[in-house]
Amino acid sequence: VRRAPRRVSILCVDDNPEIIEAVRMMLERRRDCEWAGSLERADDLVGFARARDPDIVLLDIDMPGRDPFDVVFDLASHCPDARVIMLSGHVRKDLVSRAIKAGAWGYVAKRDGGQALLHAIEQVIAGEFAMSAEAGLSYAL
Amino acid sequence: MLSTYYHEPRTPGERDLRILDLIARQAADWIGRTHAETALRESETKFRTLADASTAVIWFLDPGGNCRYVNRPYLDFFGKSEEEVYGEGWRPLVHPDDAPAYIAETLDSIRERRPLHCRARVRRHDQEWRWIESHALPHFGENGRYLGHVGNSVDISDSLEASAVLRDSEERYRSLISQVKDYAIFSTDERGVVTSWNEGCQYVLGYPQQDFIGLDFGELFTPEDRAEGIPITELRQAAEAGTTRNDRWMTARGGRRFFAMGATSSLQDSAGRLIGFSTLMRDLTQMKISQDELVQHGASLERLVTERTDELEKTTERLRLSERMASLGTLSAGLGHDLGNLLLPLDVRLQLLLQADLPLEAREHVIGIQRCLEYLQRLSNGLRLLATDPRRTASTETTEICAWWNDVGILLKNVLPSGITFDQDLPTSELWVTIDRAGLTQAVFNLVQNAADALKERGAGRVRISAEKDPRTGSVVVRVADDGPGMTEETLHRCMEPYFSTKARGISTGMGLALVHGLVTAAGGRLEIDSAAGRGTRMSLILPEAPLEEHDGYRPRGVAIVDLKDARLGSFISGEARLLGFDVRKSVNNGCEAQLVVTDEHFVRNHTAGSGTRDSYLIVLGGPVTVRSVAGSGEIVVLGRRPEPETISQALRTAAEKIDAIRV
User: Fold this and answer.
1) Do B568 and A16 touch (CB under 8 A)?
2) Closest CA to A7 of A38, A37, A28
3) How far apart are CA B263 and CA B278, in angstroms?
4) Do B185 and B280 form a contact (C-beta atoms < 8 A)?
């Protein structure tokens, strides 16, 4: 894990430009974060990540194209330093479970808000597995 | 008057006078005799006419037993002439078998001058033998001289025959009555004292004849009926109406009760005077019992049908609800997702706006929008709950309240907006209920959310969650109470209806309480609502307490060492172990005893089997080779190199259960 003073570079994959824009604006306001770019689908994520070398990848689930969990698995072998946090509107036990198995470091429900996302990024950077409140509840249920 | 005439006038001399006197006396005597004879003749004629006009056969025997007179009906009856029957001519008319006794009796009575009364067969004019009954009285002359016997005979054949028939019939009837065993048939006098008995009285009532005759009819009634005067009423009714029918419990000898079908009729003499009663009784106890059972079965069948119908209606309603819920769930899932997608950028942008140096008015607008966003977040959460498959909640799993609260308490507290305080009054010792954790969480989540909504307008208030065992019923009551405005009567009445809501559309789906009701009912419990306007609301989940043997684990205790090379997985497992209540450490230190160790090959490299892990429950993510190199005497579970997260979670729960079992 690369630690400060290096800023945490974050890459975001979501087919909704509103999400990408909001996350970018939020992260760019922070001194400890840097924007590593964004994608609207996960098909080319492995190559893109190799090029940008992000610390964190925020990955939506419900997108056209490749199955995002397969992509997480590929990423773990090709870019082992990039830690994936699933950022999704769908929060279900089976999805959380698949994400963990595929190698994701965290699962954040979009409805849990920006603060929950920032907290999850901090946890993952610190080497901890992160689940936002909504995701944790769904997995517990 | 006697007149004498002479040829010449003269005065009669003494001799003349004597002669005259003699003549006068002789004349008077003659006249008298003539008069008497005439009268006798007239009397005899009168008698003969009378005797001949009679329908009776009349005869006269002189002191020698010879017939001296018979009337016309006599001659007609026998078809004989006077000459043929006079003297001893009557004797051959008597049947040879009866003649000796009949004639002897007749002659005896003549000799003894006494009345005669006897029967015999005689040959009628048509040669038919007929029974006659003869009555005769001795006849005496004026001077007391016995003259003979005057008698009459009556043909009694028809009457004898009728009597015989009657006797036969009576005999048969008596025999019939006496042999009937299934019916007690007896008679009583007008006061109800028993006067007759049949076999049935023995069989039905248990009385032998000697004990039954003279018994008071009322003794056959139950003490209760006797106290009410039923026996007297029954006799009175029978006397008035002729017959009274009564089916009731009666008492046999020795106090045995039996159900009798009976009828009592009044008995009257030829003048219509009441002379007693006849009673017929049959033991129908078995039939009565069967009938009662049938009625009972009928009633229980009816009750069962009603229950089943109700159940069916409820099931149909549940099915309808669950179908609606299922389609609603699909809709909710999609809607929740899209809404959730929008919430993040909205939230982020509002946060950024608030960080900016905004004019006061603009800041207020932003805060207003942020409040709207909170509503949207709540709605999105509600939609997520609805999207949960309701069928999954119908389970018989059990949940320990304290452990459950440790896991979900924080999440539920977050539901409440700021300004509202949250109290909890939960048991300090274990309390198990029969409902799965998910169901309990959803139900309580809904109730807390409702409480929060009730208090939101006021911006302040108190929500209290409590759980306790009701010692009276043995149920566990999980209660969410608020000091909000409470429900109006109409709301209270309708709040369980699906789609009913007091909240603004877009904030509530109206499914909250219907969902809670469904969850609690599926777990075998019920939802009780106590609310009134201005008095706050208390929602109580009345849940069955789980018997001890049904506890499914979740007894979080002890130290767990999670030591994995894969930090990500290690972190996930640590989180899960913490949820189960383990005190999670990364390695053995301070000589503490670990109850659970989750590890991989990494563990083998970094530690030898130390004293702290010797008896631990061991979960190994790896292969058999790894396991062989681990020493210790505790149970070892191998999950493979890349286990499913749910497999890991399940293994942790099983470990918790087993560790608890060992501890116990």
Assistant:
1) no
2) A28
3) 8
4) yes
